[in-house]
Amino acid sequence: MKQVRTTCPYCGVGCGVLARRAEGREVAIAGDPDHPANRGKLCSKGTHLGETTGLEGRLIYPMIGETRVIWDIALDDVSARMANCIAEHGPDSVAFYVSGQLLTEDYYLANKLMKGFIGSGNIDTNSRLCMASAVAAHNRAFGEDLVPCTYDDLDEAELIVLVGSNTAWCHPVIWQRIEAARERNGCKLVVIDPRRTETAERADLHVPIKPDGDVALFTALLAEMAARGAVDEAYLADHCEVPEAYLAGLDAAAHGIEPAIFSRLADLVAASPRMVTLFSMGVNQSASGTDKGNAIINLHLATGRIGLPGAGPFSMTGQPNAMGGREVGGLANMLACHLGFADEERAAVSAFWQAPNLCGGPGLKAVEMFRAVHEGRIKFLWVMATNPAVSMPDAAFVREALARCPNVVVSDVIADTDTARFANVRLPALAWGEKDGTVTNSERTVSRQRPIFPAPGEARADWRIMADVAARLGHGSAFAYTSPAAVFREYAAMTSLAAARGKVLDLTDKADITDAQYDALEPFRWGGVHPLREHFPTPSGKARLVPISPPGLARNGLSLNTGRYRDQWHTMTRTGLSPRLSAHRREPLLEVSPGDAEKAGLVDGGLGQVTTAAGTATYRVAISDGQAEGQVFVPMHWTDAMAASGRTGALVVADTDPHSGQPAFKNVPAALAPV
Ligand code: SF4
């Protein structure tokens, strides 16, 4: 049996996987001991990948409506729909909604086609729902979307602060690494989270903040460090832009944490120069997510805790290739390769692509995009590798938008998703185990995803589907790729535009690799170990402390929080196939404190209904001491296609962060009732 070295398709840890194919679609899975992200370890989701590679429910032929067609007819149909919309209504009448599940090569071509050749900025990604606020915070503070840490920093830290992250469930291999560091070095662990999660239960200190209390807490911590003389004045003077009188004017009181807990937290922070703050969805999925990211970064900059072993603010991404998408420019408010829309940057990109029709500026971000579909301004939508009818906030509105849209194309591996039901055309894409390309994990390590199986039926790679459509739109010579290696080489060469403008993103040493070298590519990290310490990619060369004000925390009524289960992934189209993974939680639970359950008349094991401004959903009730009074929690995974209840997307209101456009999947005003 041939062994294939590949990468796990789930979370942003980006673990290396060894896959040995047996009979048919059976495959034995082990962790890759030589991969720097996981050193041979896997979590339950990665371990059971072999149970999810069957062909049940797969889309393996192109379909127009319910009719199976050959590829040429499907591609002609998609191209004609797109061309007609552009001719009649202009380039901004078309849009792509893509995914952190796409490989970097797929992402690169989607971005090039939309921004360079169709001439619209209307490409956005489900990564908007995951980490767009971290991107905005990085850009504001560093001048570039850069994660300044690596996983090795977790091994060297004396204090790890987890913010809005149930790491033990959502990034389990990182959690194993943290646990090992605690055992080996006595590293202390603080968890800042409104819920007492499994991660919080095992921390040295759990700080139960109010929902969206992060900005107030980190601002107060910075004020406290200034009061204790723990600010690194020399580092601030030499390497940071600091608004005048900023440190002296911070509000130290508005955090709402018990004084004894705050004091213990401040003692740990003051005593621990080697401190990593690892933050995730509890920070990003908020109407103040960008400010939260900058509040964390401000603390690290002011104390000089960045760019040193064991020190830095560390954003963990949710998806396997959210980072790769950010690098190539797959967000509507970026152009390509960490460049924006300034005239000089547009000119450079236009010349590199030989683009006839470069877009004039940013496109619509995810929530705005579906509003434009609903209003009829977007008349052609191509959804790739994602399920927005379930996963977008205000999912009922998104379904209405899809139903109104005259041209919906869905590329997916699954035939019947909640979104595919609205498609005029369905295109069969390759799944994990069939795809061939690269992904970038949360610490900037680029790894190969390699095929284990041949393509089933007539399924094709996303990059190839897009190149075929581009050719039909008259752009064949700019999309004449014959392999993912060719796409990767062009992307790597294009990073020269970023490097020439002082950015850290630079893969130009890979621009001339042969196909054989691409096939054998070992994991590599762009930007080195600590790209940010002495110099930052801003005009002044200094990092920026961003002045921010905490949002008000007063709230009448309940707050709904949403998140992941340990053994499931997104809308369960893959993990739902594994009996062992499904055994962890068989149905979606409404977790509620004893007091709130009593007030609402809910009983443990009974059914309860959650209602928000967006909709209503029903769940099995689980009364839990881990829930604070006034807060309830439900999982994100269940869909109409699999259950009559527990559809959480219907509950989330489309409230967004003003800087990043990321929706707030946490802290949604809600009410409870028994069923
Ligand atoms: Fe896959 Fe993430 Fe688990 Fe690693 S930690 S095996 S990348 S799901």
From TrEMBL:
Residues in the signal sequence: none
Cofactor: Mo-bis(molybdopterin guanine dinucleotide); [4Fe-4S] cluster
Domain of life: Bacteria
4Fe-4S Mo/W bis-MGD-type domain sequence ranges: 1-57
Keywords from the UniProt entry: 4Fe-4S, Iron, Iron-sulfur, Metal-binding, Molybdenum, Nitrate assimilation, Oxidoreductase
Keyword Electron transport recorded: no
Family note: Belongs to the prokaryotic molybdopterin-containing oxidoreductase family. NasA/NapA/NarB subfamily.
Name of the protein this chain belongs to: Nitrate reductase
Residue numbers of the full-length protein present here: 1 to 675 of 854
